[in-house]
Write a structure and sequence with these properties.
This protein is of the alpha/beta class and 339 residues long. The chain has helices at residues 3-31, 36-47, 59-64, 71-80, 92-101, 117-120, 124-132, 147-151, 162-167, 181-191, 210-219, 233-236, 245-254, 269-275, 303-312, 321-337; strands at residues 49-54, 67-69, 85-89, 106-108, 138-142, 155-157, 175-178, 195-197, 224-227, 241-242, 259-263, 280-283. The strands form 3 sheets. The chain has a 4-stranded parallel sheet with strand order 2-1-3-4, sandwiched between helices. Helix 10 (181-191) links the parallel strand 7 and strand 8. Helix 4 packs parallel to helix 5. The longest helix is centred in the N-terminal third of the chain and has 29 residues, at 3-31. Mean pLDDT is 92; it is low at 1-28. It binds 1,3-dihydroxyacetonephosphate and iron/sulfur cluster. 1,3-dihydroxyacetonephosphate is lined by residues 70-71, 144, 158-160, 230, 244-245.
Length: 339
């Protein structure tokens, strides 16, 4: 083939390639409604669905949700809903908790890969061995764990009620606290109790730079630092208030302070800003120049994926009935203890 023939062949190949790409794009655009908010609202009615969203979700998802909350509020909402379908805009362990509480409902998670680095630090086999090594201990597990870990636990807790639940137990009761070592250390400090800690942690909450927070406090002398108890002790010691996402939100709204350095996933700032538009919220920076203070798992959910999940009624959360029944008891204990 001569040079011109070669060129023609190349041209023909790239034209076909371009045409295919354009058609694919057009096809997917054709199927995605222009007004996703209206389309999701109408699917909500059609399915008798409720959308539950965590504060770490992207703003559009928070804005379309029927209930936005921290892990405890969302577990309570899941326990009390009359909807037939629960669309969980959060991570896998949260949707799993909703399914444990609602075996007959369809529970959808927009992206099944929305896991949790903290839950992943606690594999069931290793945890079973850890538990056997402490036979006289009661197991309190943070809700950020798999259904298998919940099934091996006595009581579930969240960052909202961990201190209260530990305090309610007799002083001489020995306790394993899993999987978050930072929340565990915080609970030990608040209660003066000695807990046996599983050494798990969250990649997002361990990313904050103590040095950069200290620098921000100098740059903004009026600002108060506030933090989630999943942060390391080095960060928590700079915080004038420590609490779950819901508690942080409430504190910002009620405090006379006008400026806050927020050491948790920055998705929460959408609600902080909505509830107190005149206040200034500064996300606590990570160690590196990255967006690693954003939870990569929470952010896998998008409004588009939420629409497709409702439209196609998938991906659905499923689990074995044995695990579900064993995991249900410690969740119910938590709900009774935080009524
Ligand atoms: P809360 O929802 O209890 O504040 O926990 C935050 C978190 O990391 C959820 O994954
Ligand atoms: Fe898990 Fe951390 Fe993401 Fe929360 S912020 S879902 S604990 S990885």
């Amino acid at each position: 083939m001569n040079a011109q023939g070669n060129n023609l062949q190349l041209y023909a190949t790239s034209t076909v390639f371009t045409t295919t790409l354009v058609q694919r794009d057009k096809t997917s655009l054709d199927h995605l409604p222009l007004d996703l908010f209206t389309a999701i609202e109408s699917l909500k009615k059609e399915l008798n669905a409720v959308i539950l969203a965590h504060y770490y979700q992207e703003p559009d998802i928070q804005d379309i949700a029927d209930c936005i909350g921290d892990s405890l509020q969302l577990a309570k909402a899941a326990a009390n809903t009359n909807a037939d379908v629960i669309v969980f805009a959060g991570v896998h362990f949260m949707a799993e908790t909703a399914k444990i509480l609602n075996p007959d409902k369809l529970v959808l998670l927009p992206d099944l890969n929305a896991g949790c680095s903290l839950a992943d630090t606690c594999p069931p086999k290793e945890f079973a061995a850890f538990k056997s090594a402490h036979p006289n201990h009661l197991v309190i597990s943070y809700i950020n764990c798999s259904a298998e870990i919940k099934a091996m636990s006595d009581i579930i807790c969240t960052s909202s009620n961990a201190v209260k639940i530990v305090e309610s137990l007799p002083q001489d009761q020995q306790i394993i606290f899993a999987p978050d070592r930072n929340l565990g250390r915080y609970v030990m400090e608040k209660t003066g109790r000695d807990l046996v800690l599983w050494q798990g942690s969250c990649v997002v909450h361990e990313t904050f730079s103590e040095k950069k927070i200290a620098q921000l406090k100098i740059a903004y002398p009026e600002a108060e630092a506030i933090a989630h108890p999943e942060c390391e002790t080095s960060v928590l010691r700079h915080a004038s208030f420590i609490g779950s996402t819901a508690a942080l939100l409430k504190y910002c709204q009620e405090s006379p302070t006008k400026e806050f350095i927020v050491a948790t996933e920055p998705g929460i700032i959408h609600q902080m800003q909505k509830q107190a538009p005149h206040k200034h919220f500064i996300p606590a920076p990570p160690l590196n120049n990255c967006a690693c203070n954003e939870c990569p798992f929470m952010r896998l959910n998008t409004l588009e994926k939420l629409y497709w999940a409702m439209k196609n009624r998938t991906p659905e959360i499923t689990m074995s009935e044995d695990i579900r029944l064993a995991a249900l008891q410690p969740i119910q204990r938590m709900l009774e203890m935080s009524a």
